Amino acid sequence: MSQSSYNSNEGEDLEPIDRIARPFQIFAKNKVSGAILLMAATVAALIWANSPWASSYHDILHGHVTMEAFGFGIDKPLHVWINDGLMAVFFFVVGLEIKREVLAGELATFRKALLPIAGALGGIVVPALIYYAINANGAGASGWGIPMATDIAFALGIILLLGPRVPIGLKVFLTALAIVDDIGAIAVIAIFYTDQIVVGSLLGGGALVLFSAVLNMLGVRNSIVYFIVGTMVWLAFFKSGVHATLASVCMAMTIPARTRIDGESLLARLKKLTERFADSGLKKGRGLLTTEQEHTLQDMERAVEQSTAPLQKLEHALLPIVSFVALPIFALANAGLALDGDLAMAVQSPVTLGVIAGLVIGKQVGIFSFAWLAVRLGFANLPEGVSWRQIHAVAVLGGVGFTMALFVGSLAFKDPALVEQAKLGILLASTVAAILGAVLLVTAQKKE
Asked: 65 has which bridge partners?
């Protein structure tokens, strides 16, 4: 938002509290704000973990938190609640984004979806193979899934910082690429990073997901109903041994994506209600409305609600929670890497080298080569106004695997030393990929 809009005449009717909150509202509406806050949380975690108060960082994360309801209780460390509970909201939003893109976005048709699908497939397979080649016979072999995922918040934030100079087709390609990338990561988590399965709990969770789908078919649109069912699904999956991220994505697939009324019907209703409101006798000032006017406004709200799909409403409502609460807290809880040991030795560990090579080299090679093959073989086309130099820059940005990579790393290893080595690799690789990708993107823009 520009400074001129901040000082517009609309501000004359603002209350004092609105004037105080305005700078924070502007920050929250900025699409780059989430990435900035995520970066700030990462820096804070690193400083805290290497400060004289480092012990308090670990004590807080490993302190147990118990939640009980109706005789049912779960007692887990705070770190588990953050990674399995709070991040469930993140994966639910990811699921909503996947469903939206498949129904009406860049994944809605096979031809449109093929380029990002090809790029994402390369960005999944090649990094995993590079990592496994380095760690095949070592203790870190199970971490091959770490360099597979792209952090859309960071990667897209870097592109948005460059402003309108970046073609919209490139932003769309990166977004669709990250969505397909997330689908692959979620599948890997569900299949390969699952402990012992409690079949009864898993079947119960599956039955609840089917029940939610039936509610959708029956026309239930109340978000509270889906929240209650979703909480029960999360608990069932949590107890089953299958990672609870799958529960969030499955629930997202059952959220209604249709409106009750179409655009023409909405306009007709609003026109009629506006005329009724105007005929009710408007008063000057900001006093109380009449009963008739209040009822008219309620009818307007109902009409607008019926013209919006619950999927879009939930995504819009939860996105700020994910960007400004869930992801920063996750970063604060997972990015705290102690740098008091032999850093040079840690960088040389196979796990760290595998993560760096997978993210920095594997991502760009996999994404670019698979996308190039899809176009070369005639299966897909480059987005309008997008060059191969720009595709390469985005492929490099794909190596920013921060959030999802840290998440997979926490699942892949039981040994804390291996987790720390993975963290080091993720932080170093993501930093290199972010800087190199941004430079290549600016260079590509100048040459274009």
From this structure: 76
